[in-house]
Amino acid sequence: MVATLVKTLPEGPAWLYEAKLDGYRAMIRKDGGDVRIRSRNDKDLTAAYPGVQEAARRIHADRALLDGEIVAVDRTGRPSFQALQHGAAHRDHHIVFYAFDLLHLDGIDLTGLPLDQRKERLPAVVTGSGLLLSPVLPGTAEQVTAAVRQIGLEGVVAKRRDARYMAGARGMAWVKLKLDRQQEFVIGGYRPGPAGVDAVLVGVYEVRALRFAGKVRAGFTPHVRREVFAALRPLHTASCPFADLPSSRPSRWGAGVTPEQMAEMQWVRPSLVAQVRFVEWTADHHLRHAAFLGLRADKAAHQVRREE
Questions:
Q1: 197 DSSP 8-state letter
Q2: What pLDDT sits at residue 249?
Q3: How high is the pLDDT of residue 250?
Q4: Which residues of the chain does CATH 3.30.470.30 include?
Q5: How do strand 63-73 and strand 34-39 relate by DSSP bridges?
């Protein structure tokens, strides 16, 4: 079940609020001694997060299916997507799983129950295991938004208390307000440079066409450049995957790619997804002041669209 992006949060007793955590959406399935972690696009993440798997073995149920977020947190509990992406370079962070929904419990399907009733069952299943509970935040939508903004978290998710769990659906029963402008983009090429990559070229899909959104150069360290280059090298192709390149005219912010610059770029098959922070979309539909945060293993490239 996926949240819809909104500009203002809904108010009233029918809604509950949670912090939007900057990590990987994941499901944990426990079946006796077998524990599996799956990403939103059904990739097996079990081997990547042995600590989460071990904690999940200790939940108080023989069989369960949990929905939540894998997050890298520092000593104060502040999440960092970059630390999650590049764990070896961020030893001051540790990986945790925040559970926010319970879909099956010991053979009983809970998806038809209201969210409130599913959440009532969560603490008894998770407490003491090493998995964490995503807390419901008290206060009005305005109070919650102000508190989350002050802490510096990514945003707020509002959920209808009476909502059933609709797997794969994106509706208005779950909505999200982003306080930090960032989203996923598909990498369609890069400009070669130090440690392999100087800047990545990213875009979003409109129906089946990949539209260019900009060049992302900020946010790279030498370690990250090498890591991204290693991921992109097997995807090299001679054809530009962007439907609207070269740019018809130079971009004010330098985000376009002129016909002369096309030869400088190395194109790749558009299968990798990057998380990018930016200030705004320009009138040319390009990103201004974009910074690379990391690669996403939990999103399918063909599903990436522009978020307003």
A1: -
A2: 66
A3: 57
A4: 2-178
A5: unpaired
Could you give the CA distance from residue 242 to residue 48 in angstroms, rounded to a whole number?
32
Q: 32: which 2 tokens?
A: 């006796």
Single-letter amino acid code for the residue at 151: I
> Does the pLDDT at position 251 exceed 90?
no
User: Is it true that the peptide bond before 50 is cis, omega within 30 degrees of 0?
Assistant: no
Overall fold of domain 2-178: D-amino Acid Aminotransferase; Chain A, domain 1 (3.30.470)
Q: Give the residue numbers annotated as catalytic, written as ranges.
A: 20
The model's pTM is 0.77
**What is the spatial distance between Cα 303 and Cα 204, in angstroms, rounded to a whole number?**
9
Residue 191: pLDDT band with limits 50, 70, 90: very high
Rounded to an integer, the average pLDDT of 180-187 is: 92
Which pair of structure tokens corresponds to residue 47? Answer: 């081997």
In angstroms, the Cα distances linking 198 to 126, 263, 289, 292 are 44, 15, 15, 12
CATH of 182-303, one of 2.60.40.420, 2.60.120.10, 1.25.40.10, 2.40.50.140: 2.40.50.140
Instruction: List all residues 6 or more positions away from 170 whose beta carbon is below 8 Å from its beta carbon.
Output: 1, 2, 3, 4
Q: In sequence order, what are the residues at sequence separation of 6 or more whose Cβ sits closer than 8 angstroms to the Cβ of residue 210?
A: 186, 188, 203, 204, 241, 242, 243, 270
Average pLDDT score over residue span 242-259: 77
